[in-house]
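Homework help board

Subject: predicted structure for assignment chain

Our instructor gave us this sequence and asked us to write out the predicted structure in token form, then describe one feature. I got the tokens but I'm not sure how to describe them. Can anyone check?
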Amino acid sequence: MRGLTYIQQKQISWAGRKRIELFGSDGNKGAKTYTDTLDENLFIPLYDTVRENFLTGDGGELNASKPKKPKMHALHSSSALGVNVFQYWMNKEDLSPILQACNLCNQGNNIKGKISFERKLPINSIFRFPPNIDVFIETEEHPNCKAYAVECKFSEAYGSYKSIGLKEKYLNLDNSIWKDIPNIYKLSQQICPNDEMFRYLHPAQLIKHILGLKRMYPKSKFRLLYLWYNVLGEEGYSHEHEISKFLSIAKKDKIQFHAISYQELFVNLRNYFYNDNENYIDYLFDRYF
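My token output:
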């Protein structure tokens, strides 16, 4: 079974168990993989601040005109999955449990900070639309890391589209932004303007995030996490291989790039933080594991 089909069927089965009526993306047209209301697709309703994050972002996740459904209503929405995992922690005083579950910090840390979604990471004023990172965690008084940026992927990697290359104007930026990441620059040249090297990963997007983060922080002060959904078979294997390939390139340039599957994240949450978070973790396992 194709990865995309597996994810969609798994989500449809979950909706059936919850007796959630499903619709096509355009009302009665298309595969019935969209919920009628956004709340049906979320563990807890969107906080007002999170809704504002998405409304001011460039992804149009909440925008649609009837009978079309907003993208975040899709059962296979990576934005909805990201919200279901991270919004829960926004009102927590200590963010170290979710960061530890993501393998981003050590056990016993107490990390305070602010979680936001669809954070813009400007690279240069010549670009009309800066890259938007799915989840952004700014820390308070943390000596080693000022920000954790998370790129969330659910079904996208297993669709039919090709990985998009990097436009030449990124390579023409002031050399100061590239000089301390020569291996990433070399990869950028290889995937410009078309990416013939990667099928499941989208390295151009990750490179843009790195450039944006480098404009904000020294490269030792941020962490970029690729959070992805694993599937069985050739597609999952190849996706993981491409992630490892990018990881090795970023490591050579001393970029703190990390990757973890949602499934591993869920297991970490259950193993270390199940007490007092039972409903949240049970929801994630029942729906996505």
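Reply (TA_rk): Your tokens look well-formed. For the description, you could write something like this. The chain has one domain: 3-288. That's the kind of observation they're looking for.
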